[in-house]
């Protein structure tokens, strides 16, 4: 399952002209209790700087024993399902990323792509989530917003019909995300992926039943409002993620991220909140099971 992710990574670097430092940071000290990386893109790194089996083993070695693999386009969604079936430590989320929807709409392919996502969401019981979906005003202009909203509404409905967890991407669109979610009605379980708002927005999401997932961004120096949001989030609603290979936590910001670096983020979260580290780890582990519809196997069960 390595050729397609490698091609996609090469295409991204060719398009952006950005070449990342792929030197792997050293492993941090293990956590005192297992946690879950609830949002990862193993397919983007696989075959490049860290293959999937190695990534899972490295994460398990520091106490990150389970991972939610997220597919953001049709190739990625197919890969996520295959990987979740192959590896005990993984479950999958499938969707069209909000920046993918306008591209497909312009090509007249959005309806067929959404139908394929629905098929994949039902392909196996290890597909636990519909996401990441949502809205993004950073990379998509106003011309693409209608397609984003159409796709977002479809994914909300799909999550509810299939009793899957909804995983929401929100970049510079806080009010619009809540407006669409209120229009459609939130599913029983939903996660605000890579939470990026302040304490007031956290309250709005929490009032609607969200779990808030914090990434390496919470360790960045300029993220004081995000740390305030973390501070007001109840212990039973806190999740952690990498969004790997992106958003690498301090002190390795700028290098590719991976699940084995989650302990840096969790330790920073415990310090911000004033929580005992083991208590926070146990809460994250339990919260992730609740948010994604129950526990699943771990790397120790067979990779």
Description:
By secondary structure, the chain is an alpha/beta fold. The protein is 44% helix and 15% strand. It has one domain (30-293): TIM Barrel. It has helices at 3-16, 42-45, 52-61, 74-86, 100-106, 110-121, 145-162, 174-184, 199-207, 224-232, 262-273, 277-291, and strands spanning 35-40, 64-71, 90-94, 127-136, 165-171, 190-192, 211-214, 238-240. α8 links the parallel β5 and β6 (190-192). The longest helix is centred in the middle third of the chain and has 18 residues, at 145-162. The radius of gyration is 18 Å and the shape is globular. It starts with a helix and ends in a 12-residue tail after the last helix. 50% of the residues are buried.
List the helices and strands and how they pair.
Elements: H1 3-16, E1 35-40, H2 42-45, H3 52-61, E2 64-71, H4 74-86, E3 90-94, H5 100-106, H6 110-121, E4 127-136, H7 145-162, E5 165-171, H8 174-184, E6 190-192, H9 199-207, E7 211-214, H10 224-232, E8 238-240, H11 262-273, H12 277-291
Parallel strand pairs: 1-2, 2-3, 3-4, 4-5, 5-6, 6-7, 7-8
Helix pairs in contact: 4-6, 5-7, 6-7, 9-10
Largest beta-sheet details: 8 strands, parallel
Structural class, judged by helices and strands? alpha/beta
Question: How would you sum up the global shape?
Answer: globular
Radius of gyration over all CA atoms, rounded: 18 Å
Q: How many separate domains make up the residues? A: 1
Q: Strand sequence of the main sheet, in spatial order?
A: 1-2-3-4-5-6-7-8
Strand coverage percent: 15-25%
